[in-house]
Amino acid sequence: MKSRVVLPGGTIGILGGGQLGRMMALAARTLGFQVKALDPDATCPALSVVDECITASFADEGAAEKLARGSDTVTLEIEKVALSTLEAVARHAPMRPGADVLRVVQHRGRQKGWLAQGGFPLGPWREAHSAAELAEAIGALGGRCFVKSSEGGYDGRGQVEVTSSADAPTAWQELGERSVVVEAALDLQSELSVLVARSPRGETAVYPPAYNHHEERILAWSLLPGPLPEKVSARATEVARAITEALQVEGLLVVEMFLLRDGSLLVNELAPRPHNSFHSTEVACLTSQFEQAVRAACNLPLGSVEVVRPAAIVNLLGDLWLKEGGPRFEDVLAMPGVRLHLYGKRDARKGRKMGHLSAVGSTPEDALARVKAAATALGV
């Protein structure tokens, strides 16, 4: 079962029906696959594009087994899936990526420890399991730190910036009084990410690094290929490929990294799924990250990662929908080289990703200028 090839016409199961699951499902349909999903939200974005959507918790082993029994292979679009659920799936269908990968990735402390043990470059960090340990860690790391919940949290949630040990009690309480990872603040020059696809047969394909810009800890815009020095791109690719091989990933792995002003390249976090910073692959590359995820999950030959034209994306958050009159999409649809991507979410909330704009250009900088102009016209 581990090396099973699933050909077009087969059925793919997806754990998660958010926007990433929706876009994977659309790519799978283009290749001729049937698609099923499981998600706790009965109105999830994937609902309208899959053949069946099972509404159940990510800890519901029975529901996961039902998904697996009706699928030829199963993949995921979110890390917050119980390990027992992944193991339940694997009893009935190939689970790609599997529980061994998620066991490392979904707990920040365990992830950092695994990376450190493997000799991969990290910034200074510590774990804390109480307010007192947190205060001690903040002091040891120099005062200004980012404190992150060991599990869960994304898009700026589940983390707090502190400036001294005196902030420890408030941070501990704000993060739910549970295990945390403490990271020393770094002198950043830029942020980047590398996407590696790896099939069960051991074939790998690596996309060029993306250059990312965050605002309030949420990705605001991203460029592909990132305008980075050749040595930095080569080193980032080398590190990402090595991590993927060490984890024996079957599927996708995104390695988020920091480039420091002194030239150091450090690993930030891992994501074993499609990633916001590679949405531009839909318009930039011969094979999008979503089609690549499908190919890897099915043990099919991986597609070309060639960038045929530089591209950039800007995220569209729920704040835009909350403005009077809402977004005027016709304004951006008239712009050459710009595309609109909406996720089908029903409830707009501040900070919630509702869609994104993409644009292509003759250079990454040209693509970024176009997509920023479109975002401005939309009211971002």
UniProtKB/TrEMBL annotation:
GO BP of this protein: 'de novo' IMP biosynthetic process
Annotated keywords: ATP-binding, Ligase, Lyase, Nucleotide-binding, Purine biosynthesis
Entry keyword annotation includes Glycosyltransferase: no
EC category: ligase
Keyword Lyase: yes
Reactions it catalyzes: 5-amino-1-(5-phospho-beta-D-ribosyl)imidazole + hydrogencarbonate + ATP = 5-carboxyamino-1-(5-phospho-D-ribosyl)imidazole + ADP + phosphate + 2 H(+)
Entry's family note: Belongs to the PurK/PurT family.
Subunit structure comment from the entry: Homodimer.
Function, as annotated: Catalyzes the ATP-dependent conversion of 5-aminoimidazole ribonucleotide (AIR) and HCO(3)- to N5-carboxyaminoimidazole ribonucleotide (N5-CAIR). Catalyzes the ATP-dependent conversion of 5-aminoimidazole ribonucleotide (AIR) and HCO(3)(-) to N5-carboxyaminoimidazole ribonucleotide (N5-CAIR).
Official protein name in the record: N5-carboxyaminoimidazole ribonucleotide synthase
Gene: purK
